[in-house]
Design a protein that fits this description.
By secondary structure, the protein is an alpha/beta fold. 32% of the residues lie in helices and 21% in strands. The chain folds into 4 domains: 126 residues, Rossmann fold (3-Layer(aba) Sandwich), CATH 3.40.50.12160; 140 residues, Transcription Regulator spoIIAA (2-Layer Sandwich); 95 residues, Transcription Regulator spoIIAA (2-Layer Sandwich), CATH 3.30.750.200; 56 residues.
Length: 462
């Protein structure tokens, strides 16, 4: 078959999670290797790829809007839609003239072949749309999508796992992403090595359900406990191996289930010097009744014990989380428990989401659905409480030294600064006579800007 991709132009727009972002980078590399040239999204091109999301109603709406925008900006382009929204909603776009090709979540590695085939089929008179969407729920193998370059120079997100078996009552992702599947450790190490050789200093290990890494090789009982071999977490050896790659100075972890953070696991993590002391522990609610309704497998007391464990082994680590506001049947009292719990834990950062109904989930069928106004009000109240704990956490950095990996130069209030992040993922800004991009420097926080950025000493020389 003729290579129809040679000299074609393309653009990519990504919605949703960091896993999507990793996959988009891999798609970019594959297309460039086929002779395509990338242009910024919005410019006229031959191919537009939109990597969609369906985690909330808002994500659905943004996905639809972006697909229509892509066709409006490049009317003659092939518009290819992929991602979770496509996986779940492809039937809704069978007669949509804005979408030419739909590709399922675990067929992203086939996108160059699919595009080439569609160009061939269109040359033969076929109109489309062209569907390449299977049942992800039945797929159990990991699709390799290696990346050697990423757009950020200092930090790279490395996908190591796909799928989820947890079936929280509010979540559509197990249906959109399928069963758990883990990436080969050698492939991960090779990607991290290539990234380090291209200047990356920090890697963020992530997945759809990162805590399940490696568990598909074990029994259902062991999978349910999220650990095997007397408490050993399969993710641990991978973290150690990634940290051993020459040139990588930091390893950060994506979202983790609180249940996996046993005393043994946390103690082992503390032995990895390159591991950043920032732990994103998914919470979703500070009320035990609501957690049970969500099908979350821990209590607030157990979550609190995990936080204490982390603070015992790591000096003032950043504990971050996600919370859903306005879950079905959530009472005012239960909501207030969540607000109080946010303050009790003292999170370094909280991502708050109003509950979004997802067709096909248990929560969608529950009685006692709250109004959008109530959900919005409760989300705002939780966010306000979280803003206070974020401020307290960052103020503790004033007068303290921090290792900051600087990323780029930026203008703040008319002045030029170099900005970067500490190991706890706190943003820092500093004036410097030397280009600090890509360098890890020990600085002292002197004050905090209104947006929470730590301002360091006036100048620094390297």
């Amino acid at each position: 078959m003729t290579n129809h991709l040679q000299n074609k132009t393309f653009s990519v727009h990504t919605l949703g999670c960091k896993v999507n972002a990793c996959e988009s980078e891999a798609i970019r590399e594959m297309l460039r290797s086929c002779g395509c040239a990338e242009k910024p999204f919005g410019e006229p091109v031959d191919i537009v790829i939109v990597n969609t999301c369906t985690v909330t109603n808002i994500a659905d709406r943004k996905s639809r809007q972006m697909l229509h925008r892509a066709k409006a900006q490049s009317p003659v382009a092939l518009v290819l839609a992929t991602g979770c929204y496509v996986q779940e909603r492809s039937d809704e776009h069978r007669d949509d003239p804005t979408v030419d090709i739909m590709v399922g979540n675990r067929r992203k590695g086939e996108i160059p072949v699919i595009l080439n085939e569609v160009f061939e089929r269109r040359a033969g008179g076929e109109k489309g749309p062209f569907l390449y969407v299977g049942e992800d729920a039945s797929l159990k193998t990991y699709e390799e999508l290696p990346v050697t370059h990423q757009q950020e120079r200092t930090r790279a997100f490395v996908k190591v796992q796909d799928g989820c078996n947890q079936f929280c009552s509010y979540c559509i992702i197990p249906f959109a992403r399928g069963r758990i599947a883990s990436r080969n450790e050698d492939e991960i190490a090779a990607e991290v090595k290539a990234l380090a050789e291209n200047g990356v200093r920090e890697v963020v290990i992530n997945g759809i359900h990162l805590s399940s890494y490696g568990l598909e090789r074990y029994s259902i009982t062991e999978q349910a406990s999220l650990r095997v071999n007397n408490g050993e977490l399969p993710l641990l050896p991978l973290i150690r191996r990634v940290a051993s790659v020459e040139g990588i100075t930091r390893v950060r972890l994506g979202s983790l289930e609180p249940r996996v953070m046993t005393e043994e696991v946390v103690a082992e993590l503390a032995k990895i010097p390159k591991l950043c002391p920032q732990f994103h522990l998914s919470l979703q609610s500070g009320c035990d009744e609501t957690l049970r309704a969500m099908n979350r497998h821990y209590t607030t007391a157990e979550y609190n014990e995990v936080v204490k464990r982390l603070r015992k082994h790591f000096p003032d680590p950043a504990i971050t989380t996600d919370i859903i506001a306005g879950f079905p049947q959530e009472t005012e009292e239960q909501f207030e428990k969540t607000v109080a719990y946010v303050r009790e834990i003292g999170f370094a950062q909280v991502h708050v989401f109003p509950y979004s109904r997802r067709k096909g989930t248990v929560a969608d069928r529950m009685s006692g659905q709250l109004t959008e106004a109530v959900k919005k009000q409760r989300a705002a109240a939780i966010a306000e409480a979280a803003k206070g704990t974020l401020t307290e956490f960052r103020k503790r950095r004033i007068g303290q030294n921090a290792q900051v990996l600087f990323e780029e130069e930026a203008t703040i209030d008319g002045r030029s600064y170099y900005v970067g992040f500490s190991r706890e993922y706190v943003p820092y800004a500093i004036c410097s006579r030397t280009d600090l991009s890509g360098l890890e420097v020990t600085v002292r926080g002197l004050s905090m800007l209104p947006d929470g950025t730590m301002l360091s000493q006036e100048t620094v020389d390297i």
